[in-house]
């Protein structure tokens, strides 16, 4: 994948979102408003997408970023589920989205259908199937986190920044795709990636609206609650 300002900004936004979340857990020492289920979905995304770490070499930058995403996400999950005093502040009743049933499983079925349509039985490839699964799953992985934020209503500052930078990462990657399609003559278009990227960005639309609104007014950031 070619490097340009939009891709670099997207990668840095993604990395910064993870750093902000780790910082938030370390400073606040509680997991209120954080969805560990979103983190588990993202870990599934990274583990199924980055299997090429064992099969190919795409340069130091790509390798380091992939390892960082996997390890940092695993660290976040471990911290919330097992590290005191943080684990005692994690509210399972608020983070109740059935992520394996309503996110991972449908993504797996859809990935299988898409892969079979695109390649057929003879062209079946497990690594390609898992990559397709990761693209679809990533588009909805943020859902448990958004549900938790709406249930709490008021959003803690670092938590809001975490979700904002995570959403900005995907929006910047859309600009990356547009830019590359214009400047790279032989750029290969991935319609599934485009569709999933747009869906993922749309899911953040309501959050972005209230986030920017709160920053303009300088008041507390809150979302309409679903209680």
UniProtKB/TrEMBL annotation:
Coiled coil ranges: none
Record keywords: Endoplasmic reticulum, ER-Golgi transport, Membrane, Protein transport, Receptor, Transmembrane, Transmembrane helix, Transport
Biological process per Gene Ontology, one example term: vesicle-mediated transport
Pfam families for the chain: ER_lumen_recept
Main location: endoplasmic reticulum
Stated family: Belongs to the ERD2 family.
Protein name as catalogued: ER lumen protein retaining receptor
Organism: Nitzschia inconspicua
Organism phylogeny: Eukaryota, Sar, Stramenopiles, Ochrophyta, Bacillariophyta
């Amino acid at each position: 994948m070619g490097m340009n300002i939009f891709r670099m900004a997207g990668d840095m936004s993604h990395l910064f979102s993870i750093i902000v979340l780790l910082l938030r857990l370390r400073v606040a020492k509680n997991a209120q408003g954080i969805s560990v289920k979103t983190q588990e979905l993202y870990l599934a995304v990274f583990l199924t997408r980055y299997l090429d770490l064992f099969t190919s070499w795409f340069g130091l930058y790509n390798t380091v970023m992939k390892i960082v995403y996997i390890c940092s996400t695993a660290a976040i999950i471990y911290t919330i589920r097992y590290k005191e005093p943080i684990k005692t502040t994690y509210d399972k009743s608020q983070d109740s989205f059935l992520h394996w049933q309503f996110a991972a499983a449908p993504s797996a079925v859809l990935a299988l259908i898409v892969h079979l349509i695109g390649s057929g039985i003879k062209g079946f490839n497990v690594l390609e199937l898992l990559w397709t699964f990761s693209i679809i799953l990533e588009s909805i992985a943020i859902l448990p986190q958004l549900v938790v934020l709406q249930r709490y209503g008021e959003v803690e500052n670092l938590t809001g920044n975490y979700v904002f930078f995570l959403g900005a990462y995907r929006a910047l990657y859309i600009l990356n795709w547009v830019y590359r399609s214009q400047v790279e003559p032989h750029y290969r278009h991935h319609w599934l990636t485009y569709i999933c990227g747009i869906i993922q960005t749309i899911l953040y639309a309501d959050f972005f609206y209230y986030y920017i609104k709160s920053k303009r007014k300088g008041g507390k950031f809150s979302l309409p609650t679903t209680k």
